[in-house]
Design brief:
With 161 residues, the protein is of the alpha+beta class. The protein contains 6 helices and 7 strands, in the order βαβαβαββαβαβα.
Length: 161
Amino acid sequence: MLFIQPSYGTPEARRYGRTTLDRAVPFRDDLLDPDDLARLIALHPDGRARFWGATEKHDKRMATVGTGDVVLLTGGKHVRATAEVGHSFRNPAFARRLWNPDPGKCVWSNVYSLRRYRTLALPYEAIWALPGFTAGDNFMGLRFLDEARSAAVLDLLRSAH
């Protein structure tokens, strides 16, 4: 599965990104469920990972995200990075500790670690040119792609690599 997630478009997202996308962070944390910690250690044996997340309104869809799924991290009309999902789990307290949101701001309940993180500067126009996409679509909000559109994007990423 492939999904698109805005992550560089707003000042708040860029602040979160500087915290957990620009660098791997330690995750051995008393707020983690033992099963989640064990899975994170198995996927990130050095005890550090990049993380991103989604709000509770996406709980149902995020429950389908698994190891090896691909995420496109977007902002400023570009795909800014791509990564493979490591471990996806729900833990609002851990998310709050990771991103320290301003009081009253929506906190993420869904968290996922990232592997094979790669920065890009792929303009949206390259995605819009693929079958099934619409020119001018700014990919607002979390979006899960169907199999055909996922395959087209993955082919584009392989050719841009």
